[in-house]
């Protein structure tokens, strides 16, 4: 009665006896589908990018129109910059912060457009 119980032999687990043995796991199926969708989207993007757009009409912007557009953008930049300079130096409320960030974004966008237009002599306009 005081002796240790003997070891009961446990049958060795057979992986081949599991009901889902040999089947592809669900997460691998999902990953394969996701990868194939991404490849299809990328190939479609390349086809659209490389194919000439039949409906798009490209025209060249005249130098006078280009200069007029640059002048207009510089005037707009000046007015936005004047309003920006008129803001208070302390940004203590959320609305002031939002307004300041919006003006900074607008100024950066106008500056980028001006640099783009001043970069070259030929400006092509794509009309949809």
UniProtKB/TrEMBL annotation:
Transmembrane segments: none
Pfam family, one: Enkurin
Keywords for the protein's UniProt record, in alphabetical order: Cell projection, Coiled coil, Cytoplasm, Cytoskeleton
Name of this protein: Enkurin domain-containing protein
Single annotated GO MF: calmodulin binding
Segments forming domain Enkurin: 30-125
Coiled coil: 93-120
Keyword Coiled coil belongs to the record: yes
Organism: Volvox reticuliferus
Cellular component terms (Gene Ontology): cilium; cytoskeleton
InterPro entries, per the entry: Enkurin_dom, Enkurin_domain-protein
Subcellular locations according to the entry: Cell projection, Cilium; Cytoplasm, Cytoskeleton
């Amino acid at each position: 009665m005081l002796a240790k119980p003997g070891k009961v032999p446990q049958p060795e687990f057979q992986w081949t006896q599991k009901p889902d043995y040999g089947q592809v796991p669900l997460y691998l199926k999902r990953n394969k589908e996701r990868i194939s969708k991404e490849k299809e989207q990328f190939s479609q993007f390349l086809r659209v990018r490389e194919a000439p757009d039949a409906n798009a009409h490209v025209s060249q912007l005249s130098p006078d129109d280009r200069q007029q557009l640059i002048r207009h953008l510089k005037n707009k930049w000046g007015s936005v910059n004047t309003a920006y300079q008129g803001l208070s130096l302390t940004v203590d409320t959320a609305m002031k912060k939002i307004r300041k960030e919006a003006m900074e974004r607008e100024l950066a966008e106008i500056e980028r457009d001006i640099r783009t237009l001043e970069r070259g002599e030929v400006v092509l306009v794509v009309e949809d």
